[in-house]
Design goal:
There is one protein chain. By secondary structure, this protein is an alpha+beta fold. It has 2 domains: 2-245, Rossmann fold, CATH 3.40.50.1460; 264-470, no CATH class. Helix content is 32%, strand content 26%. It has helices at residues 20-36, 50-60, 98-101, 105-113, 175-186, 194-207, 231-239, 242-245, 252-264, 268-284, 290-295, 315-324, 435-453, 463-470, and strands spanning 2-9, 39-43, 68-76, 79-82, 85-88, 103-104, 119-125, 155-159, 191-193, 215-219, 225-228, 296-301, 332-341, 352-362, 370-377, 384-393, 397-402, 405-409, 415-420, 424-429. The strands form 5 sheets. Strands 12, 15, 16, 17, 18, 19 and 20 form a 7-stranded antiparallel beta sheet that branches. Helix 1 runs antiparallel to helix 7 (231-239). The radius of gyration is 31 Å and the shape is elongated.
Length: 474
Amino acid sequence: MSNYAIILGVDKYKYASALPSCENDANLMEGLLTATGKYKVLRIANNAAKHQIQEEISSFLPIDSTDIGEVLFYFSGHGKQDEQGMHYALYDTDVSKINSTSLNNSELDDIIRKCAPKLYVKIIDACQSGVAYIKGIDEIDGDFKCIEAKGFENCIFIYSSLKSQSSYAEDLYSKFTKAIIDAVESISAPAVKFTDIQNYLSDIFNSAGGIQTPYFSTQCDGTELFFEKNSNVLAYLQSLHPETSDINDNSQSNIDAVKAYLGKCRDDGDVKSMLEKIQDALNNWKLEHSFLNEFYECECKTNFPYEYHRYHEDTSLVKMLHGRMEKENLFIEVEYTSVKKQNPLVESLFSGYKDIPVSYQSVANQLPSVFAIHFKASDSNLPDYVVPFIFVYSPTFFYVFTCTKQFVRKGWKEYENGRYTKYVYTKFEYDSFNESDWYRYQIKRLYKNAIKHAHIIPSGIDIVSCMSILNIFS
């Protein structure tokens, strides 16, 4: 018997927020199903309109054939439930015209029903995707209404979430679709059954706290085979892990690369010695210009209180570190908040959630996270300034971020946070670090930029004096 698979992943929307992972999800499933050799695969374009999709599916599936064993439909994208049932959102779906611009679940079933497959499988990775085909007793006058009444002999429907829930994604793939691939990889037997996938999904998402709960609706005997793990499937699964595919333990180049990497690494004791020299330089640094000495004194702080400047929550800093922490193995932990994705131009029902980084903390607890120079005004009518040096560590280097924070007068004895400059940063490799270079080129350059860009000189001062002061480090 012939088996057919239909795959649709919609990552871009005309009237709703984009879902970048959905195209990757579809690629993932297309690769797997093609590798099985079991299915004839139809991949629908991610920008196809409703009528195009209906025509493509109808043309792809033979009608009134007795030779169709299985039809599998996979979808990844936005989903919406209403009184008409489940809607699969397409590129041009408009919630004000939901019935004419989306693919309704019942419409899809009508098309599939015409070819009368022995087994109908749906795998849906979308918000609000759970559809109850078997209704409760109280809904149908005391008797169950089976799926068979809808015209399907055997069905396996696998949904990523309950009707009231959202489905979540990571940077590359949706969590649900990626879990399906993980399930296949976890099965040691060559025969992969649909029940194996369902059991794995239940265990994985239950252990995650139930925020997203996969939903299964079936009418079959539970022994249906998904596919056999042939050599093509094994090769495809291996191709998803390129970092392990090309490793040659006997390769001299690999050995040399590892040795070179280890040569750049330093332990916490070595890094601590480096930072002690930096701290000494900061402690011994003095304001050299008579004008500044007249109105400011300089103090190095090693315990920089958050109330001065909550650098660990600064959006630009957190975003940059989050983007680099895995690739560069930064010694930090990032805290996230879950934010509902929606387009303000359309109803919020087209939604999902994404994790947004909001703060970070250093996990190199034995090393300082920040030093700060406090420019303390001798007269309360002048603003104070703080210049933090924020340290972020890795095995082979450390970053130093700095800005200038101004504290403006709020009352006779009170100050509040004023403006501050954008962060600038420098990357220092441990194996080439020299504290004298740090002092000569880094501290002085950063102080010069900090003072200049924060406008530490009050307005009304003679411009000649300003230029003279700003050149004190030249």
